[in-house]
């Protein structure tokens, strides 16, 4: 077994572009950081694109270079895993607008020789997909065996066959949605306002000084609540207090759940850029696949022959099962081949990131990889 099947190969490429953007104009050049696992078949027919969620990156099955933590979906990608790197050639690219090597607000603007900051162009999910297509062109991959993603990654997985109907054989969409609700947008806006209220944000121009860590940590804490379920929080923390020598009242982290959220916020700022958080959450809020296709979601899928697999979780209140059913109804109306399952889990939206045997079996079976 080769190392690239287990650990992946980290790469970064600068493509000349231009990359047309939904907001008008274009981006040129385009930097894309990505990892690959496995070996591309001679006919180039075994390529699987993994699309990551908002706060993830290209290190899907490899240790993260900043945190040292294992890959975020190592139970899904690897030798003998549902996405089997002894069979499949797996690509995972850091999305456009992010901060782990792909073009984003922290990148250098060629016209000024300084970081773009808030001069970086506004981006959409479809722009992210177009950037991934540029990468596949660079790699000589004309057609994907499958595209798969959860949460924001699921948005990309939906957008791929809608944007490039002849380039995708199958799409696996997990715990995702075809558009954000007002509640989704509201939660994101709270996070963005927390970042922008931090004096160190400085209208986005903080790269030569201190980053707005406090604001970004609060944004992460607020968002993290939406990734969990009430049952999961109650089981894990309840109303349990932190161990103390004496009873005291105040505004320290008295409850265990408070300490947990603060840890999530503080650890997040060590690996993520605040401006990237603003740009990517806005891209998710703008995403509306129906609106992109004349207001009819079914129209997004009429031109594709791709097979679809959708998975939801019964405790996910961020993107509840009803959102997946809406997509399935549109796929049925478009005559697309679609399968759907709701799985039971106490972990809420984050269930797709946790080792879930039922989900793993479904993905392996859909891809034709024996468990």
TrEMBL record:
Reaction equation(s) it catalyzes: L-homoserine + acetyl-CoA = O-acetyl-L-homoserine + CoA
Catalytic residue list: 151 (nucleophile), 316, 349
GO MF terms, alphabetically ordered: homoserine O-acetyltransferase activity
Enzyme category, top tier: transferase
AB hydrolase-1 domain boundaries: 47-353
Residues that hold substrate according to the record: 220, 350
BP-aspect Gene Ontology terms: homoserine metabolic process; methionine biosynthetic process
InterPro entries: AB_hydrolase_1 (IPR000073), AB_hydrolase_fold (IPR029058), HAT_MetX-like (IPR008220)
Keyword line: Acyltransferase, Amino-acid biosynthesis, Cytoplasm, Methionine biosynthesis, Transferase
GO cellular component: cytoplasm
The enzyme's E.C. designation: 2.3.1.31
Places the protein is found: Cytoplasm
One Pfam family recorded for the sequence: Abhydrolase_1
Pathways involved: Amino-acid biosynthesis; L-methionine biosynthesis via de novo pathway; O-acetyl-L-homoserine from L-homoserine: step 1/1
Subunit structure: Homodimer.
Function in brief: Transfers an acetyl group from acetyl-CoA to L-homoserine, forming acetyl-L-homoserine.
Stated family: Belongs to the AB hydrolase superfamily. MetX family.
Protein name as annotated: Homoserine O-acetyltransferase
């Amino acid at each position: 077994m080769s190392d690239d099947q287990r650990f992946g190969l980290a790469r970064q490429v600068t493509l000349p572009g231009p990359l047309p953007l939904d907001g008008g104009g274009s981006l040129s050049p385009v930097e894309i950081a990505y990892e690959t696992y496995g070996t591309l078949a001679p006919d180039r027919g075994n390529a699987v694109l993994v699309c990551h969620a908002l706060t993830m990156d290209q290190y899907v099955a490899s240790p993260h270079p900043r945190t040292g933590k294992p890959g975020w979906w190592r139970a899904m990608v690897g030798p003998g895993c549902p996405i089997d790197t002894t069979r499949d050639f797996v690509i995972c690219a850091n999305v456009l607008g992010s901060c782990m090597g792909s073009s984003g607000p922290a990148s250098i603007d060629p016209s000024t020789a300084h970081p773009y900051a808030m001069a970086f162009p506004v981006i959409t999910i479809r722009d992210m997909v177009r950037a991934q297509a540029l990468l596949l062109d660079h790699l000589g991959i004309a057609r994907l065996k499958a595209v798969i993603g959860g949460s924001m990654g699921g948005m990309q997985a939906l957008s791929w066959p809608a944007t490039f109907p002849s380039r995708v054989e199958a799409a696996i969409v997990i715990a995702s949605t075809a558009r954000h609700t007002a509640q989704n947008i509201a939660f994101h806006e709270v996070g963005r306002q927390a970042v922008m209220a931090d004096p160190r944000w400085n209208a986005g121009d903080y790269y030569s000084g201190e980053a707005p860590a406090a604001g970004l940590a609060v944004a992460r804490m607020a968002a993290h609540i939406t990734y969990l379920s009430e049952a999961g929080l109650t089981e894990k923390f309840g109303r349990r207090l932190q161990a103390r020598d004496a009873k005291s009242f105040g505004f320290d982290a008295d409850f265990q759940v408070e300490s947990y959220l603060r840890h999530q916020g503080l650890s997040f700022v060590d690996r993520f850029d605040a401006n990237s958080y603003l740009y990517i959450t806005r891209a998710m809020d703008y995403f509306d696949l129906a609106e992109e296709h004349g207001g009819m979601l079914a129209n997004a899928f009429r031109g594709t022959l791709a097979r679809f697999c959708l998975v939801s979780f019964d405790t996910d209140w961020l993107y509840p099962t009803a959102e997946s059913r809406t997509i399935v109804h549109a796929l049925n109306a478009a005559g697309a081949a679609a399968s759907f399952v709701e799985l039971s889990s106490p972990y809420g939206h984050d269930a797709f990131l946790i080792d879930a045997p039922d989900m793993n079996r479904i993905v392996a079976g859909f891809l034709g990889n024996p468990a």
